[in-house]
Amino acid sequence: MCGTWRKGDAFYLMSDAIACWFLTEVKNGHLPSRELQDLTPGKGGNFQSWLATLREKKKIRNDDVTVVRIEIERE
To answer: Would you list the DSSP string of 50-73?
Structure first.
């Protein structure tokens, strides 16, 4: 793949368990990036509670989870 990024674009780096959940959500027509964006510190979301709920519902493997979000703020 190639291309350029623009102001407002976001890139997600994530460990395998959450990446699997993310790709499954995309495949099912959902927008998991919006869900993750709402969990950004300072926006009121609670990542740990959200993750626990996913695990309880068996939507994600009970494995280590790491997410890094990189947002382009200027061109």
So the answer is: HHHHHHHTTSS-SS---EEEEE--
